[in-house]
Amino acid sequence: MTLLPLQAHHDQAQETLPPEVYEYYASGAGAELTLQEQEQAWARFRLRPRVLRDVSTVDLTTTLLGTPFSSPVAVAPAAFQQLAHPDGELAVARAARATGSLYVCSTRASRPLEDVAAAADGPWWFQVYNMRDRDLTAALVRRAAAAGARALVVTGDTPVVGIKRRVSGTRISVPDDSYLVNLERHLAGLPATAARAAAEQDPSATVDVVGWLREISDLPVLVKGVLRGDEAVRCLDAGAAGVVVSNHGGRQLDRAVPSALALAEVVRAVDGRGPVLVDGGVRSGLDCLVALALGAAAVLVGRPVVWGLAADGATGAAAALTALTDDLAHVMALTGAASLAELDPSLVVPPATGW
Ligand SMILES: Cc1cc2nc3c(=O)[nH]c(=O)nc-3n(C[C@H](O)[C@H](O)[C@H](O)COP(=O)(O)O)c2cc1C
Ligand SMILES: O=C(O)C(=O)c1ccccc1
């Protein structure tokens, strides 16, 4: 199911990264049921191809919130990329620029976000963790906006951080120079432990955070981690421009429904009011095809990009994005679709039981 280059990157990353870093990236929460089911869930859909269409060229260009991209395959926000490769986020941002993909930079980026913005040198979005220290969150968001972020993606599924069995304790020990690189100037004088506490996610956050982020940044805000139609509507009603269907790569609530099985309900409920993006377990062009046919505006990939980064820096991360994009073009041709506009739910047969 997994594309060969992606598998090779994974294997190389597993061999070369320190074991605790590999486990941090690879692991999921709890018994890892969601993590395991997530990849398989895409493969439970079946396709109803069209025939004798002109698919001599397959056009993968798309537009997200007014910005054109070469491919609907985008980079999911992932923390601490410098643990995978010295260039960290800079390499991944360069990879996204090279492939014309959307890059989403994490609040937990391990390189200064102005440098990440310079490396992206084009459209990028900023993922927001709403931290206990609101001023800290606001300062970071303003910096992201000043550095050119075109949208904010506030993560809704992480009021507290999921407990990962494979990682010793509840979290990997991330060196302070990675953890605080984007925060320390706003936390001047605080000792590292207090600084980390201020930077923790605020579990009391509500959907009002959407309006607050819009106010302080003037940017569109998407909510990431939505798995239900009614919750998507609640986010839109609070001012969200769109949502990301996600269970955080199986790293938060174990036994959460796989994204593949939540997507159609969310698309129906959103009813065209904004883009619905999706992530989780996307490892092939067929996975992308199913997601896009079900109505996703773009598909984000997390671990495959991190494995590519670990294996070969910016080149590896770009190779992962290119492999997925090329594979998507290939299966679209076999489906009789010459552009993303020709993908629709009639191409897809959902799993017989609905689950
Ligand atoms: C190592 C790692 C770090 C992550 N860090 C963040 C983060 O900082 N913010 C966030 O919203 N999501 C984070 N995620 C979740 C991803 O954005 C995404 O939802 C998930 O990885 C998609 O699943 P996939 O890895 O199977 O493609 C992280 C995922 C991984 C694997
Ligand atoms: O590891 C993660 O998935 C993640 O999103 C996170 C949460 C808190 C701190 C650092 C990363």
From TrEMBL:
<dbReference type="InterPro" id="IPR000262">
    <property type="entry name" value="FMN-dep_DH"/>
</dbReference>
<feature type="domain" description="FMN hydroxy acid dehydrogenase">
    <location>
        <begin position="1"/>
        <end position="353"/>
    </location>
</feature>
<dbReference type="InterPro" id="IPR013785">
    <property type="entry name" value="Aldolase_TIM"/>
</dbReference>
<comment type="similarity">
    <text>Belongs to the FMN-dependent alpha-hydroxy acid dehydrogenase family.</text>
</comment>
<dbReference type="Pfam" id="PF01070">
    <property type="entry name" value="FMN_dh"/>
</dbReference>
<keyword id="KW-0560">Oxidoreductase</keyword>
<protein>
    <submittedName>
        <fullName>Alpha-hydroxy acid oxidase</fullName>
        <ecNumber>1.-.-.-</ecNumber>
    </submittedName>
</protein>
<dbReference type="InterPro" id="IPR037396">
    <property type="entry name" value="FMN_HAD"/>
</dbReference>
<dbReference type="InterPro" id="IPR012133">
    <property type="entry name" value="Alpha-hydoxy_acid_DH_FMN"/>
</dbReference>
<dbReference type="InterPro" id="IPR008259">
    <property type="entry name" value="FMN_hydac_DH_AS"/>
</dbReference>
<dbReference type="GO" id="GO:0016491">
    <property type="term" value="F:oxidoreductase activity"/>
</dbReference>
